Structure formats: structure tokens, C-alpha cells
């Protein structure tokens, strides 16, 4: 059985949107954690908005971002979208039934990584398909914006399995379903 990991940048007040607020806090500690997670993954699961943003940026970033960008570009991507009919950047659509498609993908012994993609995360959360949540909690309150668990389930209980704090104060907390 495969593993699905949702890796999310989030503010103290739960905002994930427009993460320009990560800049002052991003450092080598966090880069290493993200790199280790990416290189341990076999494919990406992405929502349409995240896919479009990533597909527009990452192919041009190999020179500046090195092996991380190479890995991002090489990994297969599975994209949840109701509107895109064609995809590039090594991507395929999940199809009309995202839950069924992800359940099928999870049958293989692979690690599937979600970056961002809050709508997809909330859908998979409701169906108990996410095995680990890595929340990178930045020490900032922005007061407005899209929140990670908007539209999610009534209650889901998680248990902490690992935590670390970067030298810039980002709390990296890994949780699994209880």
C-alpha cells in the first residue's frame, strides 16, 4: 500500500494562500527537510491551481534551484482538475472521480506527495486517504486568505509523530491519523 503525504506551508492563523510570507523564514534547515521529502517521493499529487503555478515556474528553475528542480521536473504528476483537458510537465489528470483515482494510485507501493493544493487535501482528508501531514508553520499571522482546512471534515483526530524547529522559528510538525 502506498503512502500519501501532504506538505503544507501555513501561517499561525492557518493561511496557506500567497506564501510570500515564507521568504524571511526559509533557510537551509527547511530546504533540507523539503528536499529529503521530495527525493523520498515517487510522484506528486496536485490540484489544478498548484499544478498551473508549478508547471509555469519549475521547468525554468533547474539552473537556479539545482537537483531539487530537476527532481520536481522529472517526477510524474497526477492532477485534480475539472477544467484542464491537456497537461504538460509530465502530468496526467486524475479524472472525474478524484477519490477513486487516488485510491487506485495508493494501491501501488509508492509515496505520493502533495504540495499546497488545499482543495485536494480537503477532499482526500474527508476520505481518510492522507497518511501524513507535514505542516510547516511559519511564525507569522497574516489575518486573511485561504485557510488550509476550509471546507474540510467536521472532526479528524491526528497524532504528532515528529517535530523540529528551524533556526528561523518555523515549526515543522508531522502528524498521522489517530
Question: Any overview of this molecule?
Answer:
By secondary structure, this protein is of the alpha/beta class. Helices cover 29% and strands 27% of the residues. The protein has six helices and eight strands, in the order E-H-E-H-H-H-E-E-H-E-H-E-E-E. The protein has an eight-stranded mixed β-sheet with strand order 4-3-2-5-1-6-8-7. The mean pLDDT is 94.
Task: Describe the structure using short key phrases.
8 strands; 178 residues; 29% helix; 8-stranded mixed β-sheet; 6 helices; alpha/beta
Please sum up the structure shown.
With 178 residues, the protein is an alpha/beta fold. The protein is 29% helix and 27% strand.
Unreliable residue runs: none
Largest sheet: 8 strands, mixed
Order of helices and strands: EHEHHHEEHEHEEE
Side-by-side strand order of the widest sheet:
4-3-2-5-1-6-8-7
Percent of residues in helices = 25-40%
Mean pLDDT: 94
Count of β-strands? 8
Radius of gyration: 16 Å
Percent strand equals 25-35%
Overall geometry: globular
For the terminal residues, how far apart are their CA atoms? 18 Å
Count of separate DSSP helical elements: 6
The structure class reads: alpha/beta
Sequence-ordered SSE layout with sheet pairings:
Layout: E1 3-11, H1 28-39, E2 43-47, H2 48-57, H3 62-65, H4 67-74, E3 77-80, E4 91-93, H5 98-106, E5 111-115, H6 118-126, E6 132-138, E7 158-165, E8 171-177
Parallel strand pairs: 1-5, 1-6, 2-3, 2-5, 3-4
Antiparallel strand pairs: 6-8, 7-8
